[in-house]
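We were asked to recover a plausible sequence for a given structure. The inputs and outputs are reproduced exactly as logged, with field labels preserved.

PROBLEM: sequence recovery
POSITIONS: 149
GIVEN STRUCTURE:
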């Protein structure tokens, strides 16, 4: 997992093919001006989903993990709490891996929580189970970039 400010993103470009393309697009555009949509940057290898989301309570959220994609999470106009736990340490699968949607859900508790603020980004690799959307009662714009692992 990586947690940092967007201004430092270039330090991580070598971590995965496609990471540079996703972050460059994010840094080169006015995020608050982008409409809700799915944008393909490099076909299915690098794409972004931009959406108005509604935050949930911790009890409503679940850890999730992906096998084929790396997630890059960015909140545009709010704060979101997120949880993290190593995927290998997750024991309670509540939804088996869905190959088409590249997602598996767990009922485990995160080992740690952190707050993602405007101007920051979080990168989750396949070994990182993560619990997004913890922001009870808030509606906000969020970008999730997907980069082929």
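RECOVERED SEQUENCE:
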């Amino acid at each position: 997992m990586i947690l940092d400010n967007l201004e430092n993103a270039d330090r991580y470009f070598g971590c995965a093919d496609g990471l540079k393309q996703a972050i460059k697009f994010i840094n080169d555009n006015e995020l608050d001006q982008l409409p809700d949509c799915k944008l393909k940057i490099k076909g299915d290898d690098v794409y972004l989903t931009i959406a108005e989301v509604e935050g949930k309570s911790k009890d409503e959220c679940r850890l999730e993990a992906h096998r084929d994609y790396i997630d890059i999470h960015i909140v545009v106009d709010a704060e979101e709490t997120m949880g993290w736990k190593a995927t290998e340490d997750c024991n309670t699968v509540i939804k088996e891996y869905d190959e088409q949607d590249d997602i598996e859900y767990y009922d485990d508790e995160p080992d740690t929580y952190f707050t993602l603020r405007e101007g920051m980004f979080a990168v989750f690799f396949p070994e990182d189970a993560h619990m997004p959307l913890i922001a009870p009662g808030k509606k906000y714009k969020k970008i999730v970039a997907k980069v082929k692992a």
